[in-house]
Amino acid sequence: MRSAQKQEVLELIESLHQAHEEIKEALSQKKQALAQNMIAECQEFAYSLGENIERLECQGHVTVSYVEAYCETLFHIHEEVSGNQYNENKIYKVLKKQLLKVENSAKNDITVRKEAVFLPYKASMWDSLESVWKAADEDENCDAYVIPIPYYDKNPDGSFREMHYEADQYPAYVPITRYDTYDFEKHRPDMIYIHNAYDKYNLVTSVHPFFYSDNLKKYTEKLIYIPYFVLGEIKPDEEDKIENMKHFCPFRAVPLK
């Protein structure tokens, strides 16, 4: 399960905790019909929650067993409220105890999988990303995608000329995903790695505008720039080198601190 999906599960469980408060309040005011309706809604809600966890994890996942026990508790409480002899405080405590088991299992038994996307554009520069990709690919809890992206030569006026797409030039052991088959909105990767941070400001070439840093930031919390070059250490009195740094640092994808 992805981090955002797990967070959604925990938020749904929190909403059930809040529903318990409302059920307790309804029972204290002798509004049995209202309380029963809310209990039934909790059952439906929990059933959907269990289905969702099972779909994202596996059939028979331990958290689902706690959800099923919670649903059974709701059923019995629904029957109990049908009569006039009930204790709203006891009912609240029973529901809370059972739901805490679901919550604790969701926190501890659901493994979070990360998704890392690598967006090289020139195959000759792949070596700047390869070691990071290998580490991600070897992590059993990480899905790593290598998605070579198209780039263009530019005319002196900044317009695009020829398009280049070098997906066939990577080592055979690197699994390639086509850039037009990966849905960034659907996947929302945990991290995206780039080695071209200059967007439209590169005077010679440009990656496809979809892959400009401003757009990529819409789909991930971590946009990571790994340069394909190494700059030597610059001393405070080397004013010419400091001036040349303007060509490498002050761009949209490279935050200055």
Quick take:
The chain is built from eight helices and seven strands; from the N terminus they run ααααβαβββαββαβα.
Structural class by SSE content: alpha/beta
Give the oligomeric state of the chains in this entry, treating copies of one chain as homo and distinct chains as hetero. Answer: single chain
Percent of sequence in beta strands: 5-15%
Main sheet specs: 4 strands, parallel
What integer is the average pLDDT? 90
Strand order of the largest sheet: 2-1-5-7
Ends distance: 34 Å
Helix fraction, binned, reads 40-55%
Number of DSSP E strands:
7
Low-confidence stretches: none
Rg over CA atoms: 27 Å
What is the global morphology? elongated
Q: How many helices does DSSP assign?
A: 8
Element order, helices and strands? HHHHEHEEEHEEHEH
